[in-house]
Design brief:
Chain C: Part of the ABC transporter complex LsrABCD involved in autoinducer 2 (AI-2) import. Probably responsible for the translocation of the substrate across the membrane. The complex is a heterotrimer of chains A (503), B (328) and C (328). By secondary structure, chain A is α/β, with parallel strands linked by helices. Chain A has 18 helices and 20 strands. The chains are: A alpha/beta (503), B mainly alpha (328), C mainly alpha (328). Chains in contact: A-B, A-C, B-C.
Chain lengths: 503, 328, 328
């Protein structure tokens, strides 16, 4: 057996308030695909960021070809032959494919100028390794390519650096069935060329199809290691490792589900087509689909941020047409954005200010910031206490809080508005496992109090476990509906299968 | 998942932004011709007159070429106007009428430009000071130092150096050819060198550039040096044109704001990473045509200033209004 | 803000801000002034100081709103000029005209602020460019209005606000009217910023405009209000300056940068999210104290500019350094 290319031993890493990794050991050999699996927040990304030099481990060591290495910057790991393909692309949309492939190491002529011809030729050569080669013109702007093709460019970039280790972080998140197949072929090619591949995923199908070995992380520790790919059930058990029934709140009973809060009929805009859906009072409706399927676009249309331009929306029995988030909020809709730091929080303000933001936004500008018709500081503090938000003080800047506590503060923002429909986008992204259950139960409590809840999540087990009903979107349409307890396979199939869509 | 992540890929094909500078240029030219014909002043449509129009915006063009570099790396330089005054005065004082001092004077001006650019760049990339504030502060410092020493025209430019502004090669002014050469050089640097490619990378996505091993700080500093050296050259040109340097010539020409406006009209985005020199040249032409329209129409100079302010804002708005981003 | 270990603090209503370094700086500067000029402890000394500082302090209080909301307002300097020149044109030496000219000027301030805000919000022009454009435009308007040579003096009724003293006040002997205006305006602005929904929302849109919008904040309305308050502060400062400076077309020049410097000295965060009116007031006093000291040292006027540029850059650099250290 070949010696491992990468060996990580006893890696420990803590962030303020959270221990992300505790004594994790991990290795990968040349010419193998090592699957790294675990739920959101299990510590996969942190481990990779330590490998690539973005973070520094508090303890433990990283060995490359048997030698201890300390990367203090991602460039160093890149030069050492480790290429990481992150979920957020690092491509420049305004540059061509060739320019992106050779960013920072462009081939030059004798005079030191960039050798455009050679760059294009080499780009073609690298791209020819991939099935998509025919589609990709090295002179095309990257911004004009679709997500799947951009991903190929990203992988080609890693290959062209001559990387011996390639890390792929959930590479299929935005791909449909056929594109997934293409990606798998690419991974096979890399493996045959002796590249060591760390493949992060939580989809069983991909593990079965690709992996040689599997490492399962849970709560920042190695929960299991398999030298051959086991049955999916074994992986799931290691990944979740607790009683699912307790983790997710129980589904709604038929008495709890009431009249429709929201009905949409034949609605659409430039991203959405022929949308029809109902959300009933007391019900949590999950919305599944791959990235770019239009789930967020649907949420933003309902919330008035990028409105529908056709169709009919009924909220609590009345026809509505929200043209802005403010109008939607007035009408009784609330939304928890998916990018908590970028779209949810005002980070430099206090916990209490974050909780009161919405109620203040609907009070007169010139009146006191302590009390308005919907909330006052005393009641907000009680609410924050009730939700067990852990903070030294509610006057503290919210950025010092953990993800779970931050998310609860955003929920508190909406509670004072008493919305009839609440939209949660990726409610547990970046939240540690222990806080997740709290968020699920909070959602269920809100539903029991009569709100209709629409939950968008890329974490399929979460959608299946937390929602009473699952809608699946693809290319801006709702393509399938499943009752509580549907299987992951069925939903994935509905979300990714190729279909003939009339333009 | 953020709103942005869920976005659909951009449609290829016709891109408005790419052609906008040309459309605007054609529009400005049409207005110019229209006004000239409409007011029965066809003499403004001769070749010589068009060359003269260009000649008036040479200093702006040189400055704007430099400004293009800093804006491409997502920085900005508001100290160019004071630097133009300072280098014009410096050159004129060092020359003081003596042809033998021309070379030292040019060197002194270029060195001053390089030092200012280096300082700007280091303050922006090293101390992480907001570029607007860093360069506004630098502008105060330069202007303060300058007014401490001179309050009126100072020094004298020898006839030999006035060739820079007044010399001609065939029917073309020397300075115009110089500007064109400078633009070609800047274009070549941006298009064919690694430095040029790095500029686009740093301006487009600084993190991605850093991950690719590009020394982003160095690129920002170098861009600032280029910008300030261009401003120094513009100062030299103005000294040559006015035959002497004065501490107000930079501020009078509003070169800081106008050079930014010219770059933006030329399709280079303020956020960096997209644009180029030829757009900037088109922007310069648009501005000089507008200026000529005012002249033909006989707009009074104060009213011209008012209109200028409005046009600059309108120019930026022309591009910005299509974005959905919230600006502050 | 505060970060107390005592968990019961969460239930306390009162905020205990940490000592802002600007107050330490101010105390040190005042000590230095008293050391060089013991007469400063007399009412004539400190009242005159406050009177001189009043226009800048009021401007800084307005500027803080725009900075906290994430923008810049560079148009206030030329707004001051326009107000002073415009007042002299409108009053036309008629003492009785003051009663309607003052409201008109305040209206102009509000109008200019509203236009700035509208341009930023709806044309999506970054405030820096928008207000620089406004600066050029207003300067041009001031020239245009006065025909380039402002004439006459402002009547005494108008100069009342800037120049007049209220005598026979116990303890301090006299209070300048401008100091009363200062206290009222800064008090009002501080209350609005730190005790109302408006202030909290100004902070929110500067901190994260997307989050604020998705939380239902009327981002445009709040932003425009911030610009209006800044414009209003400019008009008030202009009315005061008209009282003790003469009528000229450069009376407001440079005030915009001084106001930004004062706000930054007071810890306001560029590009938004944090800002304090009392601290900006402290920053304005500190800046005025520095200028006073430079005067005592017999340094010429241009040195002031250089010092101000250095302070501006140093204050921002220091703030960035502290932010990096606290890891935020």
């Amino acid at each position: 057996m070949t010696p491992p290319v990468i060996e990580m031993k006893g890696i420990t890493k803590s962030f303020p308030g959270v221990r992300a990794l505790g004594d994790v050991s991990f290795e990968v050999r040349a010419g193998e695909v090592q699957a790294l699996v675990g739920e959101n927040g299990a510590g996969k990304s942190t481990l990779i960021k330590i490998l690539s030099g973005v973070y520094h481990a508090d303890a433990g060591e990283v060995r490359l070809n048997g030698e201890a290495v300390h990367f203090s910057h991602p460039v160093e790991s890149l030069h050492a032959g480790i290429a990481v393909i992150y979920q957020e692309f690092s491509l420049l949309p305004e540059r061509t494919v060739a320019q992106n492939l050779f960013l920072g190491r462009e081939p030059r002529t004798r005079f030191g100028l960039i050798d455009g011809a050679r760059m294009r030729a080499e780009a073609r050569e690298v791209l020819s390794l991939f099935a998509a080669a025919g589609r990709i013109d090295p002179d095309r702007m990257v911004g004009e390519l679709d997500v799947a093709t951009q991903q190929v460019v990203e992988i080609a970039k890693a290959v062209s650096t001559g990387a011996r280790v390639v890390v792929m972080d959930e590479p299929t998140a935005a791909l449909n069935e056929a594109e997934c197949e293409e990606l798998f072929t690419t991974v096979d090619t890399l493996r045959e060329r002796g590249v060591a591949i760390i493949y992060i995923t939580h989809r069983m199908r991909e593990i079965t199809r690709l992996a040689d070995r599997v490492t399962v992380l849970k709560d920042g520790e190695v929960a299991a290691r398999f030298d051959t790919v086991p049955a999916p059930e074994a992986i799931v058990r290691a990944m979740v490792g607790r009683d699912i029934a307790d983790f997710y709140a129980p589904p709604a009973t038929s008495e709890e589900i009431g009249e429709p809060v929201l009905s949409v009929r034949g609605a659409g805009n430039d991203r959405l087509h022929d949308i029809g859906l109902d959300v009933r009072a007391g019900e949590i409706v999950g919305l599944a689909g791959i990235q770019g399927a239009g789930r967020v676009a649907l949420a933003m249309a309902l919330f008035g941020e990028s409105p529908f331009d056709r169709g009919e929306v009924t909220l609590n029995g009345g026809t509505v047409d929200f043209r802005s988030p403010r109008a939607a909020i007035t009408g009784g809709v609330g939304l928890l954005p998916g990018d908590r730091k970028g779209e949810g929080l005002v980070l430099m303000q206090s916990v209490r200010d974050n909780g009161m933001l919405t109620s203040r936004a609907f009070a007169p500008l010139w009146s006191s910031d302590r009390r308005n018709t919907r909330a006052d500081t005393t009641r907000m503090d009680e609410l924050l206490d009730h939700m067990e938000i852990r903070a030294a003080s509610y006057d503290q800047d919210i950025r010092a809080l953990s993800g779970g506590n931050q998310q609860k503060a955003i929920v508190a923002r909406w509670l004072s508005m008493r919305p009839k429909l609440l939209i949660f986008i990726e409610p547990t992204r970046g939240i540690d496992v222990n806080s997740k259950a709290g968020i699920y139960h909070l959602m269920r409590d809100l539903a029991r109090e009569g709100a209709g809840i629409l939950m968008i999540s890329s974490d399929l087990p979460e959608v299946i476990g937390a929602a009473d009903r699952v809608l699946v979107m693809q290319q801006g349409r709702i393509v399938a509906e499943f009752p509580h307890g549907a299987s992951e396979q069925d939903i994935m199939h509905a979300a990714t299968e190729e279909r003939e869509v009339a333009a | 998942m953020s709103i942005a992540e869920d976005a659909a890929p951009r449609k290829p094909g016709f891109r408005f932004e790419r052609w906008a500078p040309l459309i605007l240029l054609v529009g400005a030219f049409a207005i110019y011709v229209g006004i000239a014909l409409g007011t029965d002043q066809a003499q403004y449509l001769t070749f010589d007159n068009l060359i003269a129009i260009l000649g008036r915006s040479i200093a702006l063009g040189i400055t704007a070429i430099g400004q293009t570099f800093v804006i491409l790396v997502a920085s900005i330089d508001l100290s160019v106007a004071s630097l133009i005054s300072a280098t014009a005065v410096l050159a004129s004082v060092v020359m003081d009428g003596s042809p033998a001092m021309i070379l030292p004077a040019i060197l002194a001006a270029l060195v001053l430009g390089a030092v200012v650019g280096l300082t700007n760049g280091l303050v922006v990339s090293g101390l992480k000071v907001n570029p607007l504030i860093a360069t506004l502060g630098m502008s105060l410092i330069i202007q303060g130092c300058l007014s401490a020493f001179v309050s009126n025209f100072a020094g004298e430019v020898p006839a030999a150096f006035q060739v820079f502004a007044y010399g001609e090669i065939g029917p073309f002014p020397l300075a115009l050819i110089f500007l064109l050469a400078l633009a070609v050089l800047a274009w070549a640097v941006l298009r064919f060198t690694k430095f040029g490619s790095d500029i686009y990378a740093v301006g487009g996505n600084e993190e991605a550039a850093r991950f690719a091993g590009i020394k982003t700080g160095r690129i920002v500093v170098l861009s600032h040096v280029i910008c300030s050296v261009c401003a120094a050259i513009a100062g030299l040109y103005l000294a040559s044109r006015l035959r002497s340097g004065a501490p107000w010539i930079g501020a009078d020409g509003v070169y800081d704001l106008e050079s930014i406006a010219v770059v933006v009209i030329g399709g280079t985005v303020l956020a960096g990473g997209r644009g180029g020199v030829w757009g900037t040249m088109a922007g310069m032409l648009i501005f000089s045509l507008i200026d000529s329209v005012f002249n033909i129409a006989g707009v009074d100079s104060f009213a011209k200033q008012v209109l200028r302010g409005i046009i600059i804002v309108a120019a930026v708005a022309f591009y910005a209004i299509r974005s959905k981003r919230i600006v502050a | 803000m505060t970060d107390r270990a005592d968990p019961s603090g969460a239930r306390e209503r009162r905020r205990l801000p940490q000592i802002n370094p600007v107050w330490v700086l101010l105390a040190a500067l005042i000590a230095a002034i008293i050391f060089m000029n013991p007469g400063f402890v007399e009412p004539t000394g400190y009242m005159n100081f406050l009177k001189r500082a009043a226009p800048l302090a009021i401007l800084a209080a307005g500027q803080v709103y725009v900075i906290t909301s994430g923008g810049f307002d560079l148009s206030v300097g030329s707004l001051i000029t326009l107000v002073v020149v415009g007042s002299s044109m409108l009053t036309n030496n008629d003492p009785a005209a003051t009663y309607w000219v003052v409201p008109v000027m305040l209206g102009i301030g509000v109008g200019v602020g509203a236009i700035n805000g509208l341009i930023v919000c709806f044309l999506r022009v970054p405030s820096l460019i928008a207000t620089l454009g406004m600066m050029i435009t207003l300067n041009g308007l001031a020239f245009l209005w006065s025909g380039g040579a402002p004439r006459g003096y402002l009547p005494d009724t108008f100069r009342f606000f800037g120049r007049e003293l209220i005598r026979d006040v116990p303890l301090v002997r006299f209070i300048p009217v401008s100091v009363i205006v200062l206290v009222v305006v800064v008090g009002l602005f501080a209350w609005l910023m730190h005790r109302t929904n408006l202030g909290r929302q100004v902070h929110a849109i500067g901190d994260n405009p997307v989050a604020a919008r998705l939380a239902g904040v009327a981002v445009n309305r709040v932003r425009i209000t911030a610009f209006v308050l800044s414009g209003l502060s400019g008009a008030i400062a202009g009315i005061l300056l008209g009282g003790f400076a003469g009528v000229s077309t450069d009376v407001g020049t440079g005030y915009e940068l001084q106001a930004i410097t004062a706000a930054v000295l007071g810890g306001a965060q560029l590009l938004g999210g944090r800002g304090s009116v009392p601290a900006a007031f402290g920053g304005a006093l500190a800046l005025t104290a520095i200028f006073t000291l430079l005067n005592f040292l017999g340094l010429p006027q241009p040195v002031r500019q250089v010092v101000q540029g250095l302070i501006l850059i140093a204050a921002v650099a220091l703030a960035m350094h502290r932010r990096k250290q606290t890891g935020t």
